[in-house]
Structure formats: C-alpha cells, structure tokens
Automatic annotation (TrEMBL):
It comes from Romboutsia lituseburensis DSM 797. This is Cyclic-di-AMP phosphodiesterase. Its main location: membrane. Keywords: Cell membrane, Hydrolase, Manganese, Membrane, Metal-binding, Transmembrane, Transmembrane helix. For phosphodiesterase activity, probably binds 2 Mn(2+) per subunit. The chain crosses the membrane at residues 16-47.
C-alpha cells in the first residue's frame, strides 16, 4: 500500500488571518497610499498563493484516496479469488459471470463462464431466492460431497441501471455429516422382547415337543444377537433384553423386522402360533430414558395385539408387523379380578358417569347400559353421558327412555361437566382415545377414571386410570362387560333390555358371530340369552329403512376392485346414519369371491367416515391408523375432517397401493 502524504490540510484559521491582512491593507490606504498599495498587493499575492497551494493539495489528496481505493479493490479481489470455500457469481438467468479457484476445483470443468448453473447442479430454486429478502440456504449433494449453499443477492450501482447479481457460497459439510452419522449409528438402542402368550403356546403343543419350541425361539434370537453385533440377555422364561447400535437397528427396519416372520414359522405341533412383541427405545438422553421408551413401546405393542415391533423416540412411534390376530385367552381370571376391583371402585364413589365414544354404536351403548346395571346392583346412582342420539342407537335409546327402570339414565355434556368433581367416577367404554370420548372435558376434571375397551391400542391413550381393562382379543366391549357381570362377587341382576343391548353389541362387532368370535363370545351370548335376551328384539334394533338399502345398492354398484382382491367405494349421499350404512356395505362387499378387504367412504356434515373390513389377510387397522383411525386387524375405521369425499377417496386409494407395494 502507498505511503500516506506528509502534507497537512490547510487550517480554517489561515483564511481568517488573510482576511485580517486584507482589512489592514485597505485601512492603510487612507493613511498612506503608497504603504497601503504595497500591503494590498502583498495581500493579493497571499490570496493567490493560498488558492493555488490549496488546489494542489486537494488534487493530491484526491489522488491519494483513489490510489488507496484501488489498493483495497485489488486486495479484495485477491482475497475472494483465494477464498478457502467455493464461490460463484450468477446473473439473474442463472449464468455464471464469475467464480473463484475453489469453485473451479470443485466442478473440475474447464469452461464455466456463461454456463448456466442448472447445467452443473440440478434443483437449485433461484427464483425462490430472488423473492426472499433474507439469506437463503439449500442442502445439495454434488459429486459425492454434501454442501450447504448460502445465497446472497448484491446490487451493483456502477452502471447507469442498477444491476443485481447473486453470490453463491458453497460450504462443504461432508466430513461433518459423516461424523454426525457415525455418532448416531453408534448410539445404543435398547430392545425389550416378549413371547406372546408363552404359556398358552406351550400348552397347545405336545408335551414332548415343548422344549423344541423354547430352543427354536432362543436360536432365532441368538442369531439376531450375532448378526446385529449386540448383547442378548434372557430375563425370564418369556422375556429378553437386547442391546444393539442404531446402525444395526436401521438394518432391521429396512428388512421390516423379518424376524417376526421367522418366529411365526416355528411349528412343533403347536396349535397356537408363536409370536413375539418387541419394544425399542432410541434417541433418549440417557440409557435410563431409552429403557423407559422401550418399556412404553412394548406396552403399546402388546396393547395392539402383539406380533409386532414398536420403535419409540421422544416424539414419535414407528410400527412394524402386526399381521396376526390376537389369540383368545381361555382363562377368565382377569375378568374376575377386574370385576372385583371395579365393584370396590364403584362402592367408593357417590357419583358415576359412564360414556362411550362419539357417534356411539350398539357396542358402546350396550356396554354402557351393562355398567349402569352393575352400578345399580352396588346401590350407586349412575348416568350415561350422551348429548344426542344417532340412527345406530336411536331405537335402543327410545326403549331405554320409555322404561321406568332407566329413569333419568342420560345426562348431557353441560350438566355432566357442571356436576363432575375430582371424586366422580368416570367409566369410559369402547374407546381408549381421549379425543374420541363422548365428553373429553370429564377426563380433565375427574381423578378416578376407568377404561374398558377391546380396540387395538393407538398412540393416544387415556393415562392415569385407576382401573384399566383392555383386552384386544375380545370380540366386543359388550362381551367384556358381560363377563364382568358374571364374575363380580355379588350376584348382579341385569334387566332384560340391558341383556338385549349387550347381545346387540356383540352381534354388531362380530357381524352376527362371523368375525372375531371365540368360545368365550358364545358363552357370553349364552348367558345373555339365559337372563332374558330376545334375539328377535335384538334383530329389530338393526332394522333399516328403504333409503338405506338403496344407498347400499348404489355403493355396491359403484365399487372399484383393486388388485383383484380389494373393494373400494364411496357414496355422495348424506344421511344421519351414513356411518352405519357404509359399515353394512363394507360387510356386504366381503361376500364377493376372492375379495379379502373392503373400504367404503361416506360423508356427514363436514366429516368423511371410512369403514374398513377384512377377512384377516390384510390388516385394515394398520391402514386406517395412517389416517388417524384404528380398530382391529379385520374391522377398522377412520374419520377425516374438512376434506372432500373425492380427496378422502384418493387418500385411501394411495394408502392401499402403498400397502400393496410394501408386500411385493
């Protein structure tokens, strides 16, 4: 850089002095014209000399500043050219107008000037950058390296018309990402494994072959330990603990936990299938947190019927498997224990509110009335929370209101919320999801909540219950309540109409004893028949009018068949009982030869209802869960808010095709 000039700028006081000299010389002219003229000429010379010297100095200073700017520009150019990161400057059309050495090395291209950036790197949304007033970032992969591109728009004012250019800084983060991936891959993931119904499975095999089942399970899990480079420990006869790193867990995910299928193939004369449930905890802050996550994941896997793996992080769940139906338990010990506990909880409560899910069906209403009779046998006042009826329960509700036995049975939301206290017992039947309940506000008021449900467990669950009776192998909640009635310590006498409601709920969820029906289902039905249930009266509860038959006929006529074994249909007809109509239509479609599953959609108000049915080969619960619904492996459903029937139809179709693609 050039040396700074040694001269000093003219001081403002000099002009004052010159002015004083000029005034003094002018004054002398009045006293002595000769001396005055001499001093006046000296004054003019001083003015001329000062102007000339000041002008010269101004030019020299200007030249110095210009040279200094040139030095800075030259230094800036050299710095940019030798910048340790790739940099390029683009015109608005994407053509490269300038680049530095690092960018040239990165692209390994001889000709870059004037080349459009899209010809080098694809998917750069330059127009979006121009519309933003802030710095933009893009993650890009280029020649086996990963970059973060920082965009900066600059304005060039040197030309007459302002010109805008775009600077792109390429930050290479390949090594950082490799280190991050390596760190994440080496994280430990904890896995809790449980053999589903271990004792029942062993009992279903010949005694001499039972050890072989045990050996086969250990053999498969030991192979998993070796292949995953993990550490396996058996903690009890049916429970295992496995530690592996995150990288190996990803391999299991990519295989969709094929170990579930290997275990299911074990066959040593056992009539019940061998299945396992796996709960995996990952990405916790500590090992202790991962264990808690794994425990929660295992509980969820078991609550969904077992035969599946559930991965749980701090903010989400991932599900794999779930292809097998839950196996009915032969023992009724749990029903007896729950019945005893329920009686104690009821006796400790002065007020009991019973509620099912929104848009209740006969399973929800029948089981609610069954619980009402249990409360009545314990000399406790109970009410069923219900704001409005619907077509599926209208006939039954009408009969209840006409009977003196059920006087003041129903209570609306407003009164229930107003009268509910912390000590009020709230019994939820036929759902375990808080936002699906008839009146969710009661769950936040009461400290005593009981849940009785048979649906496969979802991510949302009513927590902090004083009593939980959740059995997914049971056909219906009405069957569960019927068993509670039978096995409570004091003899519960139920009303004839209650028995018919319970039998109607069982008939609804089993599709007249065709689906999900076990020995205990028939035993419960037999008991209800014995206490007075009339099957003809039960049948009348499901009678439909001519409009419903016409709607079902239209649905069946417009059905599309996917992959030769899946029916998909919808109706644009709106009706108050559209959820019942589409459910019945879905059942009818399963009567078609070679059809394994059916999906029917209908609209009511601003909601689209979806009914899904299966013969067991296709897990409709998993499909409906992707739309926020749930149910069972063979009976499931979902509700979509604020979407058109066409959009919902497309969503279901996409999910079906996604499922078919995964099975290929």
């Amino acid at each position: 850089m050039r040396n700074k000039p040694t001269f000093k700028m003219n001081m403002p006081e000099i002009n004052v002095y010159i002015l004083i000299i000029g005034l003094a010389s002018t004054a002398l002219l009045f006293y002595n014209i000769y001396v005055g003229c001499l001093f006046f000429f000296i004054f003019l010379y001083i003015v001329s000399h000062n102007w000339r010297v000041t002008n010269i100095r101004r030019k020299e200073w200007t030249k110095y500043i210009q040279n200094l700017s040139l030095d800075i520009d030259e230094t800036t150019k050299k710095a940019i050219m030798n910048l340790p990161i790739p940099l390029c400057i683009l015109e608005f059309d994407g053509s490269i107008s300038w680049y530095n050495n690092k960018f040239h090395e990165m692209t390994e291209s001889s000709e870059l000037l004037g080349v459009n950036i899209d010809d080098i790197v694809k998917n750069l949304n330059l127009r979006k950058v121009l519309n933003e007033n802030k710095e933009m970032y893009t993650e890009i992969k280029y020649k086996d390296k990963e970059y973060t591109i920082v965009y900066n728009v600059i304005k060039n004012d040197k030309e007459k018309n302002a010109k805008y250019l775009m600077m792109l800084y390429w930050l290479d983060k390949t090594e950082y990402l490799k280190l991050e991936r390596s760190y994440n891959d080496e994280k430990n993931s904890l896995m809790l494994i449980q053999v589903d119904g271990y004792d029942d499975v062993l009992k279903s095999a010949p005694e001499e072959k039972r050890p072989l089942i045990n050996v086969e399970i250990e053999k498969i899990l030991t192979a998993l330990e070796i292949n995953s480079k993990g550490a396996l420990k058996r903690t009890s006869k049916d429970k295992f603990f496995l530690v592996m790193n995150r990288k190996e867990l990803k391999k299991l995910e990519s295989e969709k936990f094929s170990i579930l299928d290997k275990v299911r193939e074990i066959d040593h004369g056992n009539t019940l299938p061998v299945t396992i449930s796996m709960g995996i905890g990952v990405d916790g802050e500590s090992i202790n947190e991962n264990i808690k996550l794994a425990s929660g994941a295992l509980d969820l896997a078991l609550g969904r019927g077992g035969d599946q793996a559930v991965i749980k992080t701090k903010d989400k769940f991932v599900f794999y498997g779930g292809k097998s139906k839950a196996v009915e338990k032969t023992t009724k010990v749990k029903s007896r224990l729950i019945g005893h506990a329920l009686r104690e909880v009821i006796l400790e409560s002065e007020q009991v509110y019973i509620m099912g899910h929104k848009y209740p069906d006969m399973d929800a209403m029948g089981s609610a009335v069954g619980i009402y009779d249990i409360c009545k046998s314990c000399n406790r006042q109970a009410n069923i929370v219900l704001d409005s009826s619907n077509e599926s329960i209208e006939e039954f509700v009408k009969r209840l209101k006409a009977s003196e036995y059920y006087k003041n049975l129903f209570i609306d939301h407003e009164d229930a919320i107003k009268n509910c206290t912390r000590n009020t017992l709230v019994i939820v039947v036929d759902t375990h999801r808080p936002n699906y309940t008839e009146c969710q506000e009661l769950l936040g008021i009461s400290d005593k909540i009981v849940v009785i449900d048979h649906h496969r467990r979802g991510v949302e669950f009513i927590n902090d219950t004083v009593l939980l009776f959740h059995e997914i192998y049971v056909s219906s909640t009405c069957e569960m309540v019927t068993e509670l009635v039978q096995y409570m310590e004091n003899n519960v006498k139920i009303n004839k109409l209650t028995a018919e409601g319970l039998l109607a709920g069982i008939s609804l969820d089993t599709k007249n004893f065709a689906f999900k029906t076990g020995v205990r289902t028939f035993e419960a039905a037999s008991y209800l028949k014995k206490v007075g249930a009339d099957t003809i009266e039960v049948k009348k509860l499901f009678n439909s009018d001519i409009k419903d038959f016409i709607t079902k006929a239209e649905i069946i006529q417009s059905t599309k068949i996917i992959n030769d074994n899946i029916c998909l249909a919808y109706t644009e007809t709106e009706a108050d009982n559209i959820n019942i109509v589409i459910a019945q239509a879905a059942d009818e479609l399963l009567n078609i030869k070679e059809v394994e599953a059916s999906f029917v959609l209908g609209r009511k108000d601003n909601k689209v209802f979806i009914s899904a049915r299966s013969l067991g080969k296709i897990n409709v619960h998993v499909l409906m869960e992707k739309l926020g619904g749930g149910g069972h492996i063979d009976i499931a459903g979902a509700q979509l808010k604020d979407v058109s029937i066409e959009t919902a139809y497309s969503m279901v179709k996409d999910i079906i095709y996604e499922c078919l693609k995964e099975e290929e």
